[in-house]
Please model this.
Amino acid sequence: MNYENTHPTGQLPWYVRTTLAVFGIGLIGMLVIAMCLTPSAKGYGTHTQMGLKPCSFTALVGIRCPSCGMTTSWAHYVRGNWVKSVQSNTGGMLLAMSATLAGPWMLVSGLLGRWWLWHPNEWIIVAVAVVIVIVTLCDWGYRLSY
Model:
């Protein structure tokens, strides 16, 4: 989608600006929340500090789910402990890295009303998302093997 051509001034439509700003704030907010949490020594379960229940998948099936350890991974990531972040959940670290880049970019683009630094390419965004999903599933398969 080429939003730059939707208005003669190059301004993004109000609904794109609003969506970018809201998503940017959301991603930055998730990173801030991760800073407020203490990473679990088990490598998963950090989300329970927010009042959430333990993983239902683990309770029902008896094995960790693909997203087990993501909150712990984010909590390690924001502290700069990237080795433990990867050990907790590799896909979680990739998501935290993506949020670190995308959050401020989306917020600033939304506030400016034009793309800041670069114009997004949908195929690159889809490729990054697919890579994160594949890495998460491979990481899960590796964890199930031991």
Q: What stands out?
A: The mean pLDDT is 91. The chain is about 60% helix and 0% strand. The two ends are 44 Å apart (CA to CA).
